[in-house]
Amino acid sequence: MEPKIKKLLSVLIILTMIIALLPAGKARADEEAEGSTGETHYIAVASDRHGDEEAVVKALTGMPDSVEYVCMDGDMAGDTDGEETVYNYSTIFDEVQSVFTEIDPSHVSILCGEHDAGAVDDSGVEGGMVFGAEEGSSQLMYTGYNEDGTAAYYIYAVAYYDMYSRSLAETSEAAFAFMDWVDTVKDNSIPIVVISHIPLHYAGGDNGYAAAWNMALNYAATGAETTEEGADIIRNVVYLYGHNHTAESNYEYYIPAGAAMKLFDDSCSSYIYYEYVTAGYLRDRTAATLIGIDGENITITKYQDGSIASTFAGEGAKTDFSDTYYTEAVRVITRVKPEFLFSYEWVLNEDGGYTVTGTAVPLDESGYTVVETVEAVKEIVREPGCEEQGEIRYTAEFEDEVFAVQTRSFFLDALGHDLVHHDRVEPTKTTVGYEEYWECTRCGKLFSDAEGTHEIEAPV
């Protein structure tokens, strides 16, 4: 097993109140944030239109003209007396493009919710994309690029039926598929925006499989399958959701990475390492969310009725699923770069042990290279058995705290059974007979065959 390099990463969180909307749509700053590329990419998201024909235009108006991707996060259809209104997808695309007149039509999408089953595909849709209409359809929705051709951000769509009504095994399968995709993203500095119609927090009991996706999102943000406090964030991840406009019609929630959140019921709590925010309820609130991405930096801005909202949550906002909610209209989060580039060299000694040399090369030219060599300590974790592999582990611990503990394990083949044959014994009037059998001299197991494949508890 190759040693894992522990990244010395942390998250620098800057909370900024908007004073005025600059032409570029960014919060005022005296100097450029670390990790900035000088290019800002904007993503607009909103959910739950439900037949409110003016809500989309009202919510998106006022956002920067340079918005390059728009996702309508489910339930665009109306519902009256329990009956859904059939509508054409093209209606939604037309509403979006009436605000962003220069946007590429292929950069406008609908992520289906349960009410969108009443929608119909329409030949008038030119370039717009519809996602998540079927189970198992969670996927990479869009990749944004910088001017130099490098990836700037990823948008991943979680299908409605991959969160809401599928079995736990199938939902976990979809979450694991997301984790597999995350493993293909080698550059941790590229933010991931995940959009789902269904929320993860406890607010109605209709998201019973939130735990699998919460673990997957934490994995994307930390590189580890964790729900515990104190994990290091290596990548900025944002999760946007809709659906709860009826239960939470007065509230626009925002929970920061590192906070605790109750998931699908009141008893399941987890630390989250991704930014968790409503997409913006169009019905009742005429709200939308603008995500700004500049290199490693993310800005989250809430809009309502065509202007920047003064608060995330209304007066008396519920906090039953989180001890913390933020009222800032804009928040900037920065993933801090590692201070060193690490490498570890393992050299086999004549005595069978290992000498390990750690090297930490500073990414800042003002720093200095750290080199330390230690002898790895051997530990026999498990002796090999007849059927089980053995394991030997070598552990290298460094004096300089800049280096993480390194381990390397080697596995020993199972020994196999050492069988001796026992002849068949004929029964007599006073003794019981039995068929021939084989006995292992190491583990004592009995077998009815010479290959040791059919174990028996006693001679038959």
Can you characterise this structure?
The protein is mainly beta and 460 residues long. The protein contains four helices and 31 strands. It has helices spanning 55-60, 89-99, 168-184, 210-222, and strands spanning 11-16, 41-46, 69-72, 79-80, 83-84, 87-88, 108-111, 119-120, 129-131, 139-145, 151-158, 192-196, 237-241, 254-255, 260-262, 269-271, 275-278, 287-294, 297-304, 307-308, 330-335, 340-348, 354-362, 370-375, 377-382, 390-396, 406-412, 419-422, 437-440, 446-447, 455-456. Strands 1, 2, 3, 7, 9, 18, 19, 20 and 21 form a nine-stranded mixed β-sheet that branches. A six-stranded mixed β-sheet has the order 10-11-12-13-17-14, with helices on one face. It has a four-stranded antiparallel β-sheet with strand order 28-29-30-31, with no helix packed on it. α3 runs parallel beside α4. It is flat, with a radius of gyration of 29 Å. Mean pLDDT is 76; it is low at 1-32 and 310-337.
Q: Helical residue percent?
A: 10-25%
Are there runs of 5+ residues with pLDDT below 50, and where? 1-32, 310-337
Shape: flat
Q: How far from one another are the termini?
A: 44 Å
- Roughly how many Å is the radius of gyration? 29 Å
Tell me the strand percentage band.
25-35%
Task: Please give the largest β-sheet.
Answer: 9 strands, mixed
Which tags fit this structure?
32% strand; 460 residues; mainly beta; disordered N terminus
Put the structure in a nutshell.
This protein has 460 residues and is mostly beta strands. Helix content is 10%, strand content 32%. Strands 1, 2, 3, 7, 9, 18, 19, 20 and 21 form a 9-stranded mixed beta sheet that branches.
